[in-house]
Write a structure and sequence with these properties.
- The chain is α/β, with parallel strands linked by helices and about 325 residues long.
- It folds into two domains: about 200 residues, FAD/NAD(P)-binding domain (3-Layer(bba) Sandwich), CATH 3.50.50; about 120 residues, FAD/NAD(P)-binding domain.
- About 25% of the residues lie in helices and about 25% in strands.
- It is built from eight helices and 19 strands.
- Strands 1, 2, 5, 6, 7, 8 and 19 form a seven-stranded mixed sheet that branches. A five-stranded parallel sheet has the order 10-17-11-12-13, covered by helices on one side. Strands 14-15-16 form a three-stranded antiparallel sheet, with no helix packed on it.
- Helix 1 runs parallel beside helix 7.
- The longest helix is centred in the C-terminal third of the chain and has 21 residues.
- The protein is elongated and about 65 Å long.
- The two termini are about 20 Å apart.
- The relative contact order is 0.18.
- Bound molecules: flavin-adenine dinucleotide (FAD).
- The site of flavin-adenine dinucleotide (FAD) has 38 residues, from helix 1 and helix 7.
């Protein structure tokens, strides 16, 4: 038997794709992933309050939001399997998706495997992750912890510059920690950073340890050349040192961009292989938000449904639905 659609990943992109595909009667199968401790739901399972997802005026806990998305997908007939996909074969049709337990043939695939923020794994970091330490200023900058406080951003590229400038909306002072004696950010971003009176750049240094009690209180940084240590009394530490897209599985089978993200065509979510789409953080290193992941998950599902219909590949599903009635 060949399935209509397999969705790989259970973040906002995967579940949104599943909700739309379920409603379009594609009977989607969602491989939710197992490696995150057997807990489906993606990155938002690791956070507390989500304040910027529309529809929740008072905010919503990340795990609760993902539970609701999962239930909505199940309600529309998605079959959710908490397993990792360990291999894919996109060289022939139907495509083959393999887990430890099974191999499934499918006409269409939507890849929503997300990305993982790089962390420094400093001593003490685990204690303050999501409670002072973050990899997303847009997500966490408005936390009252940072109101009129001092915070630090690690990195010297465009993302670090954007995060630092964004944080000046809340923090009284932003320290930017750069490993070398120059910024990699674009000239415009450099100018904005260097001319900001509440941003201080610390050159040739790296963070070495964080300290605090209930919350983050202090960061120790080290001069890379002299090895001198300096203390910064910050309430927040933001990593802007890049993300790793979860695309290892697809290397050599799909076109990836120079950063390893899945390349999608123009305004669509189509990959270079017809019948395969990619949505969410796995194809987006620009916005990296739950709502944009959900938005592209919706796009991918609509594109998949139209493609299956145009290619007369939906017959099997229609027959299946009729036989169920
Ligand atoms: C701590 C934290 C706080 C955040 N806060 C906010 C916020 O407040 N607001 C906001 O908009 N955004 C926030 N974000 C960003 C947001 O979580 C991401 O943009 C969003 O989750 C991306 O969704 P996604 O569906 O693309 O991927 P993800 O959420 O990364 O989900 C990817 C899924 O793919 C699965 N997967 C990976 N490989 C495989 C495989 N081989 N087989 C099967 N499954 C696989 C994973 O298990 C996971 O379920 C936050 C991120 C973090 C880390």
């Amino acid at each position: 038997m060949t399935e209509n659609l397999v969705i790989i990943g259970s973040g906002p992109a995967g579940y949104t794709a599943a909700i739309y595909a379920g409603r379009a009667q594609l009977n989607p199968i969602v491989f939710e992933g197992f490696s995150a401790g057997g807990i489906p739901g993606g990155q938002l399972m690791t956070t507390t309050e989500v304040e910027n997802f529309p529809g929740f005026a008072e905010g919503v806990q990340g795990p609760e939001l993902m539970k609701q998305m999962r239930q909505q997908a199940l309600r529309w007939g998605a079959q959710c399997i908490t397993d990792d996909v360990i291999a894919v074969d996109f060289s022939q049709r139907p495509f083959v998706i393999t887990t430890d337990e099974q191999s499934i043939k499918t006409h269409a695939v939507i890849i929503c495997t997300g990305a993982t923020a790089k962390r420094l794994h400093l001593p003490g970091e685990e204690l303050f992750w999501n409670n002072g330490i973050s990899a997303c200023a847009i997500c966490d900058g408005a936390n009252p912890l940072f109101d009129n406080a001092e915070v630090a951003v690690v990195g010297g590229g465009d993302s670090a510059a954007e995060e630092a400038l964004y944080l000046t909306k809340y923090a009284q002072k932003v320290h930017v920690l750069v490993r070398s004696d120059r910024l990699r950010a674009s000239k415009t971003m450099q100018n904005r950073l260097l001319s900001h009176d509440r941003i201080q750049i610390h050159w040739n240094c790296e963070p070495v340890r964080v300290y605090g009690d209930q919350v983050l209180r202090k960061l120790e940084i080290q001069d890379i050349q002299s090895k001198d240590l300096t203390e910064l009394f910050v309430s927040g530490l933001f990593y802007a040192i890049g993300h790793i897209p979860n695309t290892e599985l697809f290397q050599g089978q799909l076109t990836l961009d120079p950063l390893g993200y899945i390349h999608t065509e123009g305004k669509s979510t189509a990959t270079n292989i017809p019948g395969i789409w990619a949505a969410g953080d796995v194809q987006d290193h620009h916005y990296r938000q739950a709502i944009t992941a959900a938005g592209t998950g919706c796009m991918a599902s609509i594109e998949a449904e139209r493609w299956l219909a145009e290619n007369a590949l939906l017959i099997e599903s229609a027959t299946m639905n009729l036989s169920l009635v």
